[in-house]
Amino acid sequence: MRARLGIRKLILVMGLLPILALSLALSAYLMFSQISELRKLMTERAKTSSEQLAILTEDVLANGHADTLARITTTALEETAVKAIAIYSADMQLIAQAGPKSNLSANMMSPGQQNATFETLDDGLLILQPVLASPGDSQIASSIVGWVAMQFDWRHLKTHQYQTLLVGTIFLVIALILCISLTSYINQSLAADLASLRQTIRKMVTGARNFHAHIPENDEFNEIADELNQLNNAHQKELQELQRSIEQTNIDLRETLETVEVQNIELDLARREALNASRIKSEFLANTSHEIRTPLSGIIGFSKILLKSELEISQREAIETIHNSANSLLTIINDILDFSKLEAGKLVLDSAPVNLREVVEDTLQLLAPSANEKALELVLIIEPGTPETVLADGLRLRQILTNLINNAIKFTPSGHIKVVISSSYTGDQEAKITVQISDTGIGLSKEQQQGIFKDFSQADASITRQYGGTGLGLVIVKGLIEQMGGEIGIVSEPGQGATFWFTLSLPATSNTIKLRDFNVLNGKTVALYDSSELHSQAITSLFISWGLEVSRCDKISDLSKADYCVICTDSNSDTRNLLSELNQPAVIITPYSEPHDENADRIYLSKPFSHIKLFDALYKGLKHNSQTFPQAVNFPNTHILAVDDNPSNLHILGSFLSDMAIQIHYAQNGAEALQQCREKHFDLIFMDIQMPQMDGIETSKHIRDSGLNKNTPIIALSAYLSPENPTQLRDAGINDYFSKPISERQLATLLSKHLKPKAEPNNSLGPLRPVDISECLKLTKNRPQLATDMLNMLLEALPNQKQDLYNAWEQDDLNEVSTITHTLKGACCYTGTPILKQRVIELELKLENASPCQTEFSALINAIDGLLAWRDEHDLSIVFDL
Q1: Are residues 540 and 586 in the same domain?
Q2: Long-range contacts at 178-187 (CB < 8 A, ≥ 24 apart)
């Protein structure tokens, strides 16, 4: 944008430039006119002088008086501006001359010329004037008798020119001075008026009141000053009115604040009463939870004990009804307590490393029985790039997944349940985890989706009657996800299933203990047969993440040779006929609880499978899977202290632990527990949290401070659904937390996590028989035919396994020896072969500890030989009385 000149500069420019331009133009015009006129006059004067001289010399030239001509030329030279004079004859011969000689040009002396000629010189004028004879009466025309040449010098003309320029310049300077003086006066007057106006405006801006703008002259600035005065008066009136309004508003506001203060006091009292009521309600619910869950734990525990005993059919049905009803009541209480905690904002989240795949797999395996009743397929797909481990509250994450997957199973009559986990990194190693649970169930309409996450609500009344439930499951899930900083939503159409999704931003971590090195399978090949396209996608994704090259086949007969072979069947497959075509070792993955026959060449897993078990089955068999046979896990010579103020809880826990060959010690309060911990070292301590005199947290702190059990694992068992503050438990030295009631399976898992199963000592193997018939029948639930088949499969495979053991031992291939012994151990667990089982366990322990094991290997070979000798001496059909 072009800058605009200020008013003072504008006046200065507009006042000076026109006048200066006019003065210059007028002066130039006048000087040029005067010089031109002066030159013209001088030329006319020179012409006249030459004509007069020509007339004067006519008679003299005619009479030939040369001396007279000399006088005439000398006299004429005295005239002003005449520089030189020369008189020539008619034929241009010089007769007389005065002054410098003039050089006549050829043009001036052209023949036949009778008129005067002029030539302008640098410093003057040269005139050649003919001298004509006076005509007589008889003559028609005059004749030339001679020539007069006069040279004029115009130096005095330049003097006149300089005088004219000087006068014009003086005139111009005087005009310029007058203009500058005039514009300066105008600028000063304007500056004074503008300064007065600026001062007035500045006073108005600063809030001054008592001032009056005045301009002495009666012009436009005076009018502006009057307008400013009027503006100031109006402004003052508005300020006064505003001040009155502010004062009135302050009065009204003060009255309003007094009213609000009174209301705030009333609201604060009401809030305190509400908080106190909420606290009382929370305490009541917490205490009620403890009081209700404690007898429920007893009901569930003792019902389990009764179900393990010999009962009549009607008695078993009644106890099963009690057991199922108690579990249903426990689920309802858990939902109500979680909802109460979320509503009161007292739910405390933990932060610890959580393996995403393990959490989802554990949840799917937990819910597999209910899914199997509807022949539903449970599938887990984890997309590439998803972190294995994140920092989160594992307990609450399992609760979210359990509610959503259980909800999908409840409302899906047939089809599948698919769990897809993906992630994207948002910086600083924080991953945005997205979990989608899709089903092929009844679906939801748009109206039903709007109320699905509201309290105590389901899709509609008919569904409530058909499926039951409190309607709190999704509300609790939504509250947990929002407290963890995530979002939850649903995408569904009626009759087309539903997809529940939620996102959580969780820090990714690698600071965890890896149970397996999956990279050892990198570059290996696996032949896969899977009758389910969806399940095939999931297991293929898992294999690719391990670095395996997958070769899929549509038929068992098309299976190609590969390092590993995996067969996956579904509920519609005829597994027995399907596997009859299989002629190579393989891992068989079958639907949950489908019966199968184990042998040395086939390892069976159930859907949904654990990726740890699948890895072990591929790489090392089931060697590291301590939970494959939960009923057979024993912990002999293990001493455990159980601390609880409820005798029934101690009785139930003692009953479960006794079945695992554990020596149990009891304490009914913290003081007794501390006294026993000072006197004896325990392998593990079960600690109740809420106890009289000294609670479980304080007791655990004292145990960790000093004594024999500073490093003993402490497991908290409480009737509370979840700890109020998980960090408080860790600070007290508590290693794990479980809510009552705890099942036998959970107990076995818990013990396997914190204790290492031990082999029962047997120092007198001599009396033991190679085959214990009673043990065979016990392991097969008194089914002689099954016991015969299981033992026969073991005996048939022994010769080849013995040879394989020899070959591996000779080649110093301890990994192969470990694989074969693991297979033998699995077979022994389903048959009553105590000597072989004991020798296998001894050799496995040596191999795991990397100790010399020549003695144990020889003992195992002797045990195999003894069992083969027993086979040759006995007929199995007679032994089992078939």
Answers
A1: yes
A2: 179/15, 179/16, 179/19, 179/20, 180/16, 182/15, 183/11, 183/12, 183/15, 183/16, 186/11, 186/15, 187/8, 187/11, 187/12
Mean pLDDT of the chain: 78
pLDDT of residue 759: 44
Supply the DSSP string of 259-312, one letter for each residue. HHHHHHHHHHHHHHHHHHHHHHHHHHHHHHHHHHHHHHHHHHHHHHHHHTS---
Q: Quote the CA–CA distance of 147 and 127 in Å, as a whole number.
A: 10
Residues 418 and 541 in one domain: no
Last residue of a domain, one of 464, 487, 515: 515
**CATH number of the domain to which 468 belongs:** 3.30.565.10
436 — pLDDT class (breaks 50, 70, 90): very high
Q: Is residue 212 part of a domain?
A: no
**530 and 615 co-located in one domain:** yes
Location of structure tokens 């301890």: 814
Interval 195-235: pLDDT, tens: 777 787 777 777 666 667 666 666 667 777 777 777 778 87
pLDDT per position as a tens digit, 807-827: 888 888 888 888 888 788 777
Verdict on whether the full-model pTM lies above 0.85: no
CA geometry: angle 334, 335, 337, nearest 5 deg:
65
Last residue of some domain: 694, 724, 754? Answer: 754
| pLDDT-based confidence at residue 836 (cuts at 50, 70, 90) | confident
Q: Are residues 447 and 541 in the same domain?
A: no
Tokens at 239, concatenated: 């300020």
Helices of type H across 308-427: 313-344, 356-373, 394-410
The distance from CA 608 to its chain's CA centroid, rounded to whole angstroms, is: 33
**Are the CB atoms for 470 and 458 separated by under 8 Å?**
no
Query: What is the residue whose two structure tokens read 């047939």?
Result: 414
The larger pLDDT score, comparing residue 137 to residue 300, is at 300
Range picked from 332-346, 395-409, 777-791, 847-861 for highest mean pLDDT: 395-409
Q: Which residues contact 544 (CB under 8 A, 6 or more apart)?
A: 384, 550
3-state SS class at 354: strand
Residue 787 forms part of a structural domain: yes
Smallest CA-to-CA distance from 396 within 456, 361, 351 is with: 351
CB 204 within 8 A of CB 225: no
CA distance 312 to 262: 72
Q: Which of 45-54, 104-113, 337-346, 683-692 has the highest mean pLDDT?
A: 683-692
Q: Which helix (H) or strand (E) holds 565?
A: strand 564-568
Question: How many domains in the chain?
Answer: 5
- For residue 433, name the pLDDT band (cuts at 50, 70, 90): very high
Residue 173 domain-assigned (yes or no): no
Q: Residue 435's pLDDT is what?
A: 95
Q: What is the pLDDT of residues 178-198, one digit of tens each?
A: 877 877 777 777 777 777 777
659 and 592 in one domain? Answer: no
Q: Which amino acid is it at 53?
A: L
- Residue corresponding to tokens 């195992």: 860
What φ, ψ does residue 641 adopt, rounded to 5°?
Answer: -100, 125
Contacts of 547 (CB under 8 A, 6+ apart): 518, 519, 521, 522, 523, 524
Owning domain of residue 683: 631-754
The residue with greater pLDDT, 523 or 73, is: 523
3-state DSSP call for residue 118?
strand
Host H or E run for residue 857: helix 854-873
Tell which wins on pLDDT, 720 or 749.
749
Long-range contacts, 22-29 (Cβ 8 Å, 24+): 23/171, 23/172, 23/175, 23/176, 24/172, 27/168, 27/169, 27/171, 27/172, 28/168
* Whether the Cβ atoms of residue 187 and residue 19 lie closer than 8 Å to each other: no
Tell me what pLDDT residue 554 has.
81
DSSP lists the bridge partners of residue 117 as: 128
